[in-house]
Amino acid sequence: xxxxxxxxxxxxxxxxxxxAGVSAGATALVLExxxxxxxxxxxxxxxxxxxxxxLRVLQSRPAESETALSFSGVGDxxxxxxxxxxxxxxxxxxxxxxxxxxxxxDDGPTLDRRAVxxxxxxxxxxxxxxxxxxxAIDDVQWLDAASSAALGYAARRLRxxxxxxxxxxxxxxxxxxxxxxxxxxPSERYTSVQVGPVDLTALHHVVHDHLGVALPRPFSPRCTxxxxxxxxxxxxSFECCSARESRSRQASRCPSLSRCRIWCMGDSSPYQRxxxxxx
Length: 279
Ligand SMILES: Nc1ncnc2c1ncn2[C@@H]1O[C@H](COP(=O)(O)OP(=O)(O)O)[C@@H](O)[C@H]1O
Ligand SMILES: [Mg+2]
Hints:
Blueprint: H1 9-21, E1 27-33, H2 39-52, E2 56-60, H3 72-78, H4 82-86, H5 91-100, H6 113-130, E3 133-137, H7 145-155, E4 163-170, H8 176-184, E5 190-194, H9 200-211, H10 219-223, E6 228-232, H11 244-253, E7 260-264, H12 270-276
Parallel strand pairs: 1-4, 1-5, 2-3, 3-4
Antiparallel strand pairs: 6-7
Helix pairs in contact: 1-2, 5-6, 6-7, 7-8
């Protein structure tokens, strides 16, 4: 799997198992963790692996600013396979999906949302008959409600279809699509992978790969008992949150550490909580 991912062997193994299981019927895996923990990195590795395995990958990476744009998520997922997805559908379903995706005039009666759900299910089923399909949605908590409803309708009816759903969710934000999937799939076909902080060795690698610098020695002993997380930022400093004075000392010793913030997890001091939730 992707050489861009440092560490994370257990999570990568779960993704590999999940992808291997797609040909046995509907299945889902969600990567769950706080912002900056490395969910998208793992999600992208899963997408790359699925493509290498020959799965048909349908992707969507909704942004927070697009949560109110109805059906934008379904539009992204079907964008690359639109003709194939629409062709086998009965006329009323094709019309409903076409209207939802703004491929047709939207001046008729109110759009029948059930018809869109039926059409999405039909499109996914017919795609999966030819080739196993991976529906890959990053930041699923920002999927627009109309897409969540249509995909949720489909999810409730998936059984033996060769369709895998790979998502990443930023906690504590919720996703109605994930709620549907966890309710409707058998428990052994729904996997949740908790993406916590990377271990210190991996963190050293990530910082070195991204910034070309080694973490300063004083950083290590302070963090050995605590795993750490990393997140890109425009800030020109990094933060080690175990103590206020440690932060300023580390930052002043490492002026070249730009674009990254690093924090140690597990310290319940108010200062750390403020930093850890400020991204
Ligand atoms: N295991 C890892 N290997 C290499 N880089 C990583 C790893 N985890 C996180 N990163 C880097 O840290 C940053 C934040 O990771 P990202 O996957 O975007 O987090 P999230 O999606 O959880 O917010 C990115 O720049 C990413 O490249
Ligand atoms: Mg992300």
